[in-house]
Amino acid sequence: MILIKDGHVIDPANSIDDIMDILIIGEKINKIEKDIAIKEEYEIIDAKNLMVFPGLIDMHVHLREPGFEHKETIKTGLEAAAKGGFTTVACMPNTKPAIDDRTIVEALDRKARGAKVNLKVIGAATKNIDSDQLTEMGDMKEAGIVAISNDGKPVKNANITRRVLEYAKKFDLILIEHCEDESLANNGFIHEGYYSTILGLKGIPREAEDLIVARDIALAKMTDGKVHIAHISSKNSVDLVREAKKQGINITAEVTPQHLILTDQIVESFDTSTKINPPFRSEEDRKALVTGLIDGTIDMIATDHAPHARWEKEVEYAYAPFGVVGLETAVSLIYTKLVKTGIMSFGNLVEKMANNPGRIFKLGGVLKVGSDADITLFDPNKKWVVNPNKFYSMGRNTPFKDWNLDGEVIHTIVKGDFALKDGKVI
Amino acid sequence: MIKEKDLLGLRNISTDEIDEILRVAIPMKDIITRDIKKVPTLRGKSMATLFFENSTRTKSSFEIAAKYLSADCTNLAVSTSSVQKGETLIDTAITLEVMGIELFVMRHGASGAPHFLGRNTKARIINAGDGMNEHPTQGLLDMFTMQDKKGNLGDLTVTILGDVAHSRVARSNIWGLTKYGAKVRVVAPATLIPVEMERMGVEVYTDVDKALKGADVVNVLRLQKERQSGGLLPSLVEYNKFWGLNSKRLELLKDDAIIMHPGPMNRGVEIMPEVYEDPRSVVDEQVTNGVAVRMALLFMMLGGKSGDDIN
Amino acid sequence: MKKFIEKAVIMEEDQMDRALKRIAHELLEKNKSLDNAVILGIRTRGVPLAERLKKTIEEIHDIVVPIGVLDINLYRDDLTSLTEQPVILQTVIPVGVKGKKIILVDDVLYTGRTIRAALDSIIDMGRPELIQLVVMVDRGHRELPIRADFVGKNVPTSKREKVEVLLKEIDGIDKVIIKEAVEESK
User: DSSP state, B287?
Assistant: First the structure.
């Protein structure tokens, strides 16, 4: 039994924004009230000056199992999640082999059994990711998948995408799409703009994303299926999603902290920890992402946590793999760069990182009596410096190395149990 | 004095530094024209060329520059068939460094590769061309040639003609020349002009006649034949017809204009033979100046102070 | 901190003038003819001295001797130990050195290392018939077997001292001074 005392509890989904106590009994939230009387059997957490909110949910992480255990494992990935205040993460299926049938989903479940943080699995939409054969998504759904995706790539072509959307409807699975037209991207690897021009690095125009976003909007409308745009990065795409939502099309979108904060200028260093897909785009795009997030066009923030081994990233820029790690910096980055600067409220942060992913993918994400006690406690006054060598993740590839950040997760509670206590993973 | 440990490009180097390089290149050029083409200046200094891409001109130019200054130059021929990358690149450099190499001259097909190596070695690095990013010593020798022939760089209108999208020579020229206030024009088919190029401070043309009109210098870029694939060009013949430099187009230039080309030339593609033979062509002199400029750089980066004292 | 302060003036303008005139006489005496000669001034202060010598020879003997400028920095033996990289300037010898009588001119002869560098530099440009050395001041303390053929003035010095030849063309005044090093208290 845990009593969280005197914390600033925030849950916009339940219109809570007040100093309150939360009592946890077993795996569930028992009470959310002011001044809950202390009993001897309670473990008391003094949450004075802490923000207390529903455990964060990340719908886009790469935990690299099976097949790439040298980059990350379920264990280290979930530890990194706990450190970052996430109580639930959903892992992408672009592994080796791909997560494209029930046995792999179940194997991952078994792997995650000892871990505190909830692991949810996203199944591939087509066999081996890149084929035109649908996966047994019904079977995988029974085994627990929460969405389907071919992340790393979009579903191969318009026809297969149509079929995926039609078929997935019966199982109420959302298709998470990595939107990139491969022919227009033309093996580029940074944003096509001023910096690709001056640095002589091959660019990916933002229109490569726009084309697939437009395609999927049309197909979502045609099939009445559900599409979720992964890591949106282009200003045009934000406009397309906004317009589609107005028309009542079933479309949602996520954005990463790094795309909300950084632009392609950072590539100047030729540091491979700035190599990411979709690439960091122009300041104009970045501003549109922030606007889209605030006005509700973009529903949630997801990290696209993509760890790589040091030796894989310590190569020439062109040869380095895409991706940056994000679990352990996400909430502090958003707090420092968007909340403290007054661009959005702390309530918005909770909506975008817990309420909305929870609602859209039916994973909770709220503080409610009787629901799972998944709770994050955050000290907004703590200051820290990003030191990749201290990450729980095996990945060190962050563009935020040595950044000074405000606010740090102190405790992460999952189903009434500490996954992170006093800043240390349990 | 070169302020940074490495010479990676002309984008992040001051006009003071460029001025000094171009000034030191003048006495260096004298050495090349003497009977005894050798001074003992860099005796006992060790450097290596590290070429991950084929090159005859640039590599021999650096080698000769090193010899004229009495530096010991090791040439590491890195096989181009087995693509060397990652740790292998660092390992190769560190191995040479612990054997006493103090400076690397490096060419690599990936933009930013020398920047990457520079962070991982104490030896100094001269970028001899990285991907489509920069080729600073070519930029410097072009500027040296322009200054020598035409005077103050700031007064010049320079037209860069050709595949600017894929050209590191174009980028280094643009960075260097615009620092001095030269008016730089680029001209190519739209498929060979990268986006937002205007932001580099150049005028962008697709019409070659307009771009050549009244120019003091035309710098013609080599067109790689593989540009015909990938939808960039229909044919070399059509390229030559609309963008090739021929004697008729030369009439558009100022009377005392000079014609440059970084070599090797594709005669009949980007440049016609009679243009190369025109008295205004300084293509051969560029090659000589290349040795002089590289001697100046080697002297400035290996003579006097060692890289450790600087960084 | 070491600081040099002026200790004594060892030559004034007229003495320097007379020294050059004497050297001009001696040069012709020793060489019989200056037909095939080239005067080479070592940068920096050897250059105006070379020009004066050329003029003096012209006035006295009515002989025009071609002149050149020598930059010896590429031949220095102390390049790697210098804190400041030397400024490299052009060497200009319009008539070349091959088969010529080279009259090398510098302001002060001290360790001999500059002259060693100059000799190497000249020989790399071609084989001269001979090389002779003219200096305004010889202050001793040679570190190499080198001597001057014509000297304006021999000045015994200590190693703690510094000899400076000031020239109108560069310094606005003609004189030769000795400076002494003193420890400066901060």
Answer: H
